[in-house]
Amino acid sequence: MIKNIIFxxxxxxVNWDPHAAFQKLGFDEKTEKAVGNATVYSDAxxxxxxxxxxxxxxxxxxxxxxxxxxxxxRMFWDNVGMAIYQYEYSRAWIQKLKxxxxxxxxxxxxxxxxxxxxxxxxxFLEDVDGxxxxxxxxxxxxxxxxxxxxxxxxxxxxxxxVFLDDRRENVEAAEARGIYTVLFTTYQEALEKLKTYGxx
Length: 200
Description:
The chain is α/β, with parallel strands linked by helices. The chain is built from eleven helices and seven strands. The chain has helices at residues 18-24, 29-38, 43-50, 55-65, 70-78, 90-99, 112-116, 134-137, 144-153, 168-176, 187-195, and strands spanning 4-7, 14-16, 84-86, 103-108, 130-133, 161-165, 180-183. Helix 7 links the parallel strand 4 (103-108) and strand 5 (130-133).
């Protein structure tokens, strides 16, 4: 019996659109490609979610990836919130689940700097029972440890949980810990998939 709903954040509860941010900052195609490859499309971005480095150290890594674009990289870093906005359904969905008696948790790869600059987009955190963000525990999905961290922190039983994430590797890692899963594509499809677990 499912008692706990666990949400990923990016592309499930909020839109993550670096291209939109680059456009708003006025980058041409060449600049967008260079800055994107130095930041959000690099392995260093995954490590920024882990947040072992502080923000200045992390920024320095991005700049090293494309020194000629330091100015533009700094512009994007300072305005990363432009890339994120909350979906219209997100907060109401969580509140509806709560009213039905489910406990709701967050398990997300999210950098500390990004978190600090996107608080408005994360307003649904006021409604959840708890969260584990990668920057808090220096672990990232799909590493098995982060799933166990969530279960242990909130004393959850794996087979009483269903986890929604848009990335297959993250879903498969959760399944390996005994957690039921939904590979998120759209809000409406997720609602239908949750019904198969008795979540209505």
